[in-house]
Design brief:
This protein is mainly alpha-helical. 84% of the residues lie in helices and 5% in strands.
C-alpha cells in the first residue's frame, strides 16, 4: 500500500509539471501568435500537453476510486471480524455456562460420592459389630450347647444312679425276704444239724482223707497257677506296650488331625485371598481398560484437533497464495511505476519551460496531497482496527479451545464420578444385604440361645428333682441296709453254729473251688488278654494305615498350600508391578508422552538447538529419537504434521558418515529430495521437514538452529 501511495505521489508530480508546462506554453503560444509566424506549431504542442494532463487527472481519479473501494472492503472485513468476535464471545459464554454447570454437577456428584463413602463406612462398621455380636452369640451358643450336653450327661448319670438305687433297693427287699426265709430254715436246720453232728464226726475222718488228696491236688494247681501267672504277666507286659504304642499313635493321629485342620484352614484362607487378589486384579484390568478408553478418546480428540490444524494450514496456504498474488500485483505496479519514471524523465526536460504554470497547479496538488493523507490515515486506522479484531479473534479462539478442553475433561470426570457412584451404590446394597443376613442370623442365634436357656432350665429342674429323688431313695436304701444288717446278724449267729460244724469241710471245698476258680479265671484272663492283644494289634495297624493316609493328605495339603502361597505371592507381585507400571505410564501420559509399539515418545513445546534438545532428553531419562522402521517414521510424521523437529541423527564425528545418538550407523534413511546437501555450510544435524513428503522428509540443518525435538525411550525401562 505504501508503494502504491509513493507511485501516486510520483505520478502527481509529473501531472503538476505538465499542467504548469501547459499553461506556460499557452501563454507562449499567445505571445508567439502575435509575435512569430510559427504559432501554429506551438498551438499543436499545447493541445497535446492539455490532453496529457487530462489523462493524468483521469488516472489519479481512478486511483482514488480504488482506494475508496479498498477502504470499503476493509470496513466490511472489519465488520465481519467483529461479527466473528461476537459469535466467539457468545460461544465462550455458552461454554463458560456449560463449564459452570458441569462444575456444579461434579461437585454434586462428589458430595454424593462422599456421602455414599460415609454410608459405606457406617454400614461396614455396623457389619463388623454385627459380625462380632454373631461370633459372641455363636460362642455363647457353643458354651450353652456344651453345658446342655454336660447337664444331659449328668441327667443320664442321675437317671442311671436312680435306677441302680431302685434295683439295689428291690434286691435288698428281696434279700431281706430271703434272709427271713433262711432264718426260719436255719432254725429248722439247726436241729437237723445237731442231729447230723454225730454223722458229721464220722464223716470228718473221711473228709480228712479227702483233705489230704485235695492238698496234693492244690499243690499241682498252685504250680499250674504260677505258670499261668507268669504267662499272664508276659501278656500283660505285651498288652501294656501295645497300649502305649496305641496311645502314641492316637496322639500322633490327633496331632495330624489338628495339623490337617490347620492346613485346611490355611488352604481355605489362601483360596479366599487368591479370589480376593483375582477380583482386585480384574478390577485393575477394568481400570486399565477404562484408562485405555480415555486414552483412545483423547487420541481421537487429538486427531480432530490435527484435522482442524490441517484446515487452518490450508487456509494459511490460501492466504499465502493471495499474498503471492498481491506481490505479483505489486511487481506489476512497480513495472508501471518504472515506466512512469521513464516518462517523467522525458517530461523533466520540458519541465524547465513550464515553471510558470507550476504555481497555478501547486494549489491543486496541495489539496490532493491533503486528501491523500486523509485517506492514508483512515486506511492505517482501518488496518490497525482489523489487526486488533484479528488479535481478539485469535485470543477468543484460543479461549474457546481451552474451554472446550476443560469441558471435555469435566465431562470425563463426571462420567468417572458417575461410575464410582454406581460402584459405591452397588457396594452399599451388597453391604445392606450382608447386614440384613447378619441381622437374620443374629435373630436365629438369639432364638436358639433362648431355646437353649429354656432347655437348660428344664434340665436343671429335672436334675434337682432327680437329686431329691435320689436322696429319698438313698434314705430308704440306708434304712433297708440297717434292717438287712440286723437280719444278717441274726443269720450270722445261726450260721456260725453251722459253720463250726462244717468249717473244715467247707474250707477244703472252698479252697479247692477257689483254686479251680483261679485256674479258670487265669485261663479266661489269658484268653481275654490274647483277644485284647490281637484287637490292639489290629487297631495299631488301622491307626498306622490312617497315619500314613493322614501323612499323604498332609503332604498334599502342604503342596497345595505352598502352590497357593506361591500363586498368591506371584499375583501380589504382578499386581504391584502392574500398579507401578500403570502409575508411571499415567505420569508419562500426563507429561505429554506418546506410546507406540514398545516405545514412548515426547514431542517438546519449546524450541532449542540440537545439543540442548539432546541434553533435555537425557534429563528425562531418554535420548533423541532413533527411527528403526517405516511404521515408526509414519507414526511420527503423522503426529508432527507441519512442524519441524530434531531427531537423533548427526555426522559431527565425520562429515558424510551419519550415525544415531547410540553410535549405530544409519541403515535406512528417509531423506527428502536433494538431501542431505549442506546447503548453508556446516549442516551436521537432521530434522523432520514439514514441507516435504510425509515419509521422505528428512533434511540436514545446522545444529545451532532452534526447533522442537522428539525424545524416545523404551517401555521396558518403566
Amino acid at each position: 500500500m505504501e508503494m502504491n501511495i509513493s507511485i501516486n505521489k510520483n505520478r502527481e508530480v509529473p501531472e503538476d509539471n505538465e499542467l504548469e508546462t501547459h499553461r506556460t506554453r499557452n501563454k507562449k503560444t499567445e505571445i508567439s501568435e502575435t509575435n512569430s509566424p510559427g504559432s501554429r506549431c506551438y498551438r499543436l504542442t499545447a493541445v497535446c500537453l492539455g490532453l496529457l494532463c487530462v489523462l493524468l487527472l483521469t488516472v489519479i481519479i481512478v486511483m482514488w476510486v480504488k482506494l475508496q473501494t479498498r477502504y470499503n472492503s476493509l470496513n466490511a472485513e472489519r465488520d465481519q471480524i467483529q461479527t466473528s468476535y461476537n459469535n466467539l464471545t457468545a460461544e465462550r459464554d455458552q461454554l463458560q455456562t456449560t463449564y459452570n454447570s458441569l462444575t456444579a454437577e461434579r461437585d454434586q456428584l462428589q458430595t454424593i460420592y462422599n456421602s455414599l463413602t460415609a454410608e459405606r463406612d457406617q454400614l461396614q462398621a455396623r457389619h463388623s459389630n454385627l459380625t462380632a455380636g454373631r461370633d459372641q452369640l455363636h460362642t455363647r451358643y457353643n458354651s450353652l450347647t456344651a453345658e446342655r450336653d454336660q447337664l444331659q450327661t449328668r441327667h443320664s448319670n442321675l437317671t442311671a444312679g436312680r435306677d441302680q438305687l431302685q434295683n439295689s433297693y428291690n434286691s435288698v427287699i428281696l434279700e431281706r425276704d430271703k434272709l427271713q426265709t433262711r432264718y426260719s430254715n436255719l432254725m429248722t436246720e439247726k436241729g437237723l444239724l445237731q442231729n447230723n453232728y454225730n454223722s458229721l464226726t464220722a464223716e470228718r475222718d473221711q473228709l480228712q482223707t479227702r483233705y489230704n488228696s485235695l492238698t496234693a491236688e492244690r499243690d499241682q494247681l498252685q504250680t499250674r497257677h504260677s505258670n499261668l501267672t507268669a504267662g499272664r504277666d508276659q501278656l500283660q507286659n505285651s498288652y501294656n506296650s501295645v497300649i502305649l504304642e496305641r496311645e502314641k499313635l492316637q496322639t500322633r493321629y490327633s496331632n495330624l488331625m489338628t495339623e490337617k485342620d490347620l492346613l485346611q484352614n490355611n488352604y481355605n484362607s489362601l483360596t479366599a485371598e487368591r479370589k480376593q487378589l483375582q477380583n482386585r486384579y480384574n478390577s485393575e484390568i477394568l481400570e486399565r481398560n477404562q484408562q485405555q478408553t480415555r486414552y483412545n478418546s483423547l487420541t481421537a480428540e487429538r486427531d480432530q484437533l490435527q484435522t482442524r490444524y490441517n484446515s487452518l494450514t490450508a487456509e494459511r496456504d490460501q492466504l499465502q497464495t493471495r499474498h503471492s498474488n498481491l506481490i505479483a500485483g505489486r511487481d506489476q505496479l512497480q513495472n508501471s511505476y518504472n515506466s512512469v519514471i521513464l516518462e517523467r524523465e522525458k517530461l523533466q526536460t520540458r519541465y524547465r519551460n513550464l515553471m510558470t504554470e507550476k504555481d497555478l497547479l501547486q494549489n491543486n496538488y496541495n489539496s490532493l496531497t491533503a486528501e491523500r493523507d486523509h485517506f492514508q490515515n483512515r486506511y492505517n486506522s482501518v488496518i490497525l482496527e482489523r489487526n486488533q479484531q484479528q488479535t481478539r479473534y485469535n485470543s477468543l479462539t484460543a479461549e474457546r479451545d481451552q474451554l472446550q478442553t476443560r469441558y471435555n475433561s469435566l465431562t470425563a470426570e463426571r462420567d468417572q464420578l458417575q461410575t464410582r457412584h454406581s460402584n459405591l451404590t452397588a457396594g452399599r446394597d451388597q453391604l445392606q444385604n450382608s447386614y440384613n443376613s447378619v441381622i437374620l442370623e443374629r435373630e436365629k442365634l438369639q432364638t436358639r440361645y433362648s431355646n437353649l436357656m429354656t432347655e437348660k432350665d428344664l434340665l436343671q429342674n429335672n436334675y434337682n428333682s432327680l437329686t431329691a429323688e435320689r436322696k429319698q431313695l438313698q434314705n430308704r436304701y440306708n434304712s433297708e441296709i440297717l434292717e438287712r444288717n440286723q437280719q444278717q446278724t441274726r443269720y450270722n449267729s445261726l450260721t456260725a453254729e453251722r459253720d463250726q460244724l462244717q468249717t473244715r469241710y467247707n474250707s477244703l471245698t472252698a479252697e479247692r473251688d477257689q483254686l479251680q476258680t483261679r485256674h479258670s479265671n487265669l485261663i479266661a484272663g489269658r484268653d481275654q488278654l490274647q483277644n485284647s492283644y490281637n484287637s490292639v494289634i489290629l487297631e495299631r495297624e488301622k491307626l498306622q494305615t490312617r497315619y500314613r493316609n493322614l501323612m499323604t493328605e498332609k503332604d498334599l495339603l502342604q503342596n497345595n498350600y505352598n502352590s497357593l502361597t506361591a500363586e498368591r505371592d506371584q499375583l501380589q507381585k504382578e499386581r504391584e508391578g502392574f500398579q507401578k507400571k500403570f502409575f508411571e505410564m499415567d505420569n508419562y501420559y500426563r507429561q505429554g508422552w506418546l506410546f507406540f509399539n514398545s516405545k514412548m515418545y515426547y514431542v517438546s513445546i519449546e524450541v532449542k538447538s540440537w545439543n540442548e534438545s539432546r541434553q533435555d532428553c537425557r534429563e528425562r531419562g531418554a535420548d533423541l529419537v532413533i527411527i528403526n522402521n517405516r511404521e515408526e517414521q509414519e507414526f511420527l510424521s503423522k503426529h508432527l504434521g507441519s512442524r519441524n523437529a530434531w531427531i537423533g541423527l548427526t555426522d559431527t564425528d565425520s562429515e558424510g558418515v551419519w550415525k544415531w545418538v547410540d553410535g549405530t550407523a544409519l541403515a535406512t534413511g528417509y531423506w527428502s529430495r536433494e538431501e542431505p546437501n549442506s546447503l548453508v555450510g556446516d549442516e551436521d544435524c537432521v530434522i523432520y521437514d514439514f514441507a516435504s513428503n510425509t515419509i521422505w522428509n528428512w533434511a540436514d540443518y545446522p545444529c545451532s538452529r532452534n526447533f522442537i525435538w522428539i525424545c524416545e525411550k523404551n517401555k521396558a525401562a518403566l
